């Protein structure tokens, strides 16, 4: 008795599935490329933000914040598209948990050249995301230190502007802060 195997993928190479569409993989790669481009732009913007912070250029900081908002919205849309494309591609593969699959795991189930392209794009995305995270940490540290310095300067100005006004009604010594020091620095 010559029976065909009940598993339709039994005659395929282990870990590779022919039912995954190259068009689906191309769509996913397109979203990954778009995300990489957007993250690269965010990295460049973080450098401009750092430069603006160091130069105390509020106009440049405002323009950076506006551009960052636009880029983050685009990243959100591209990430949603990437997630949907990943899920669609994963659904074409038997035995894959669509909710838990990563790009690297998905690449293991695809044939060449899609598998290599997906792995390469995944590594590039991880690298640029890591660089962006480090740059944003630097920007946050500089901003915190700048904020602390401004608070210290304002505190010093407030103390320097105090003058004695004599004794109060209960006989205690009273101090009065000169308002012009605060007005001068805003």
Report on the architecture of this protein.
The protein is mainly alpha-helical and about 190 residues long. It has 5 helices and 2 strands, in the order H-H-H-H-E-E-H. A two-stranded antiparallel sheet has the order 1-2. Strand 1 and strand 2 form a beta hairpin. It is elongated, with a radius of gyration of 29 Å. The relative contact order is 0.12. The model is unreliable at about 1-20 (pLDDT under 50).
Structure in a nutshell:
With 186 residues, the chain is mainly α. 69% of the residues lie in helices and 6% in strands.
Instruction: Report low-confidence residues grouped into runs of 5 or more.
Output: 1-18
Mean pLDDT: 77
Number of β-strand runs? 2
What fraction of the residues are assigned to beta strands by DSSP?
5-15%
User: What overall form do the CA principal axes indicate?
Assistant: elongated
Q: Structural class given helices, strands, pairing? A: mainly alpha
Major beta sheet, strand line-up: 1-2
Largest sheet data: 2 strands, antiparallel
Topology pattern, helix = H, strand = E: HHHHEEH
Query: How many distinct helices?
Result: 5
Taking all Cα atoms into account, the compactness measure Rg is 29 Å
Helix percentage: 55-70%
Beginning-to-end CA distance, first to last residue: 92 Å
Features:
2 strands, 6% strand, two-stranded antiparallel sheet, 186 residues, elongated, 5 helices, mainly alpha
Set down the secondary structure blueprint:
Layout: H1 22-55, H2 58-91, H3 103-109, H4 114-160, E1 162-167, E2 173-177, H5 179-185
Antiparallel strand pairs: 1-2
């Amino acid at each position: 008795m010559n029976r065909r195997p009940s598993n339709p993928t039994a005659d395929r190479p282990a870990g590779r599935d022919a039912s995954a569409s190259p068009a689906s993989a191309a769509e996913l790669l397109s979203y990954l490329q778009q995300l990489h481009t957007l993250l690269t732009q965010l990295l460049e913007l973080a450098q401009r933000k750092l430069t603006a912070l160091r130069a105390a250029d509020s106009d440049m900081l405002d323009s950076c914040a506006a551009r960052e908002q636009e880029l983050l919205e685009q990243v959100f849309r591209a990430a949603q598209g990437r997630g949907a494309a990943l899920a669609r591609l994963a659904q074409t593969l038997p035995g894959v948990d669509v909710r838990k699959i990563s790009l690297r795991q998905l690449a293991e189930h695809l044939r060449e050249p899609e598998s290599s392209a997906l792995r390469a794009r995944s590594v590039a995305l991880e690298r640029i995301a890591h660089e962006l995270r480090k740059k944003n940490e630097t920007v946050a540290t500089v901003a915190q230190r700048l904020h602390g310095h401004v608070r210290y300067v304002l505190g010093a100005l407030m103390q320097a502007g105090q003058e004695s006004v004599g004794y109060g009604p209960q006989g205690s010594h009273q101090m009065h802060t000169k308002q012009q020091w605060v007005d001068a620095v805003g």
